[in-house]
Design goal:
The complex is a heterodimer of chains A (138) and B (84). Chain A has 138 residues and is of the alpha/beta class. Chain A has a single domain (3-136), classed as 5'-nuclease (Rossmann fold, 3-Layer(aba) Sandwich). Chain A has 8 helices and 5 strands. Chain A has helices at residues 7-14, 21-31, 40-50, 53-56, 63-74, 91-94, 101-114, 124-129, and strands spanning 3-5, 36-39, 81-83, 118-121, 134-136. Chain B is mostly helical and 84 residues long. Chain B has one domain (9-81). In chain B, 43% of the residues lie in helices and 7% in strands. Chain B has helices spanning 9-21, 30-42, 72-81; strands at 53-55, 58-60. In chain B, strands 1-2 form a two-stranded antiparallel sheet. The chains are: A alpha/beta (138), B mainly alpha (84). The interface between A and B is large, with 47 and 33 residues.
Chain lengths: 138, 84
């Protein structure tokens, strides 16, 4: 597995209402053959977002449909892995977080690094703090 | 919401029979049967929504007409609010 896709990129790829849908869809389609996956945290985040009326309004999906959509994306000729953390959060990495929002970003970077992958992200903070462990999605 | 429905005789009969089959009005009221039927027909699979496509390895879920344009920032805020 070469890439671990972060929450924002994964949701943007599968949801046309995201501002970066076209770019994310194109990026994921073209990089899947290299080997890809999402963290279990991203799997759950996508499920919750698809079920959230603040995001989806009247298009809110029931759990069954949200899970089916995610599993269908993970299926196909280049199936994606669902990656579980291999060890506990690394304090050395987390101490670099500048504010609470970067905690989950850093955790995803750690999961990617431990899996021998790079985190595919649009997040500038993650790319600045962890240039060796991330790949920009444009 | 309380409302009044006018049902054709055959539909009303079907509902009564289904209710009886499931153990009567306490177990399966007409309201519950109608609710279940509407959800099944109108609120399921995303493929039913215009612009949505789901094939293995490539899913695109169309936005509902009343859905806000989702930004990366909004996504982060929603997840942060919910503890993820």
């Amino acid at each position: 597995m070469k890439f671990l896709v972060d929450n924002d990129v994964f949701l943007a790829a599968i949801y046309a209402g995201h501002e970066h849908h076209s770019q994310a869809r194109k990026w994921l389609d073209s990089h899947k053959p290299d080997g890809w996956g999402i963290a279990a945290e991203t799997y759950l985040a996508a499920t919750r977002l698809l079920m959230n009326p603040a995001v989806m309004a009247s298009g809110t999906l029931p759990a069954k449909s949200a899970l089916l959509a995610i599993e269908t994306e993970l299926d196909g000729p280049y199936p994606g892995k669902v990656v579980l953390a291999r060890r506990r959060p690394d304090q050395t990495m987390l101490r670099k977080a500048e504010g609470h929002r970067q905690i989950m970003d850093t955790w995803l970077v750690q999961i990617a690094r431990d899996a021998g992958a790079k985190l595919a992200t649009r997040d500038a903070g993650s790319r600045t703090n962890w240039p060796e462990d991330t790949i920009p999605v444009r | 919401m309380k409302t009044t429905l006018e049902l054709p005789a055959d539909v009303a009969h079907t509902l009564r029979m289904e209710s009886a089959r499931r153990g009567g009005r306490k177990a399966a009221s007409l309201s519950k049967l109608v609710t279940d039927a509407v959800r099944t027909v109108y609120a399921s699979p995303t493929v039913a929504r215009r612009g949505t496509s789901q094939k293995p390895g490539r899913v695109v879920i169309a936005a509902a007409p009343d859905a806000p344009r989702l930004t990366s920032e909004m996504l982060r805020l929603v997840l942060a609010d919910e503890g993820l």
